[in-house]
Amino acid sequence: MEIKLEDLKVLYSEEQLQTRIKELGQELNTFYKGEEVIAICVLKGAVVFAVDLVRHLDMPLKMEFIRLSSYGSSTTTSGKVNAVDIKLPDLNGKNVLIIEDIVDTGLTAKFLVDFINMNFHVKTLKFCSLLDKKITRKVDIEPDYYCFEVDDKFVVGYGLDYDGLYRNLPYIGYKE
Ligand code: 5GP
Predict the structure, then answer these.
(1) Strand order from edge to edge, sheet including 155-156
(2) Of 34, 74, 103, 165, which residue is most buried, by most CB within 10 angstroms?
C-alpha cells in the first residue's frame, strides 16, 4: 500500500488532538499530585505527542527517550520488538510514565512494561498512549491512559509515519 498526502482523510483534527491532550494532562496532574515523574518517550512515533503532553504537566519531570522498532518500512508489524536504544537511568523508586504513539498488537507495550519491571522496582508505572487500536491486540495489555481509540486502519500524522513520512502533520489521517 502506498500512501500519498492527497489521499489522506482526517481522522482526528489538530483541534481534537490538542483539546484531548490538555484534558489528559489534567488527569495526569491529578494522579501524580505534584510528585516527580520520569517520562519515557518511545521514539520516533511518540515524540510529537510527548512534547505537547509534557507542556500540560505541572510536576517536576524528567524526560528520557528510547528507541524500539517492530514495523520497518511496512504497514504491518513484524511481530518482533527490537530494542534499538533502551539506555535508561536508575528508575528504582520513581514514578515512571511511558509515552507511546499507538498500542496495536500490544507487543511493544508489553515488551517495555516487562523490561522496566524486570530491571527496576519503580514506585508507579503508567502507560500512556495517544491512540489505542484495541481491535488488533494480540497480547493482554491495556494502556492506563489514552486519547482516542482507532479501529483497524493504518493511521499517520502527529508523529506516526508511513515509511518515515507524515510525522509532521498536525492531525491524524488515514487512507480510505
Ligand atoms: P505494537 O507493538 O503494539 O503492534 O505496535 C506498536 C508500534 O507499531 C507503534 O508504536 C507504531 O510505531 C506502530 N504502529 C502500529 N499501528 C500503526 C499505525 O496505524 N500507523 C503507524 N504509522 N504506525 C503504527
Answers:
(1) 8-12, 172-175, 155-156
(2) 103
Q: Which residue has the higher pLDDT, 87 or 18?
A: 18
Residue nearest to atom 19 of ligand 1 (CA): 154
Q: Which strands, in side-by-side order, build the sheet including 145-149?
A: 82-85, 61-69, 37-43, 95-103, 124-132, 145-149
Angle, CA of 45, 156 and 28, to the nearest 5°: 50
Catalytic residue among 104, 114, 140, 161: 104
Q: Measure the CA–CA gap between 143 and 131, rounded to whole angstroms.
A: 9
Q: Are 41 and 50 in contact (CB under 8 A)?
A: yes
Cα 86 to ligand 1 centroid, rounded to whole Å = 18
Report the distance separating Cα 119 and Cα 112, nearest Å: 11
Q: Phi and psi for 79 in degrees, rounded to 5? A: 85, 0
Could you list the residue range(s) of the whole structural domain that residue 10 is in?
5-174
The residues lining ligand 1, judged by C-beta closer than 6 Å to any ligand atom, are 45, 70-71, 77, 100-109, 133, 154-156, 160-162
Q: Residue 10 belongs to a domain with what CATH number?
A: 3.40.50.2020
Question: How large a percentage of the chain has pLDDT more than 90?
Answer: 86
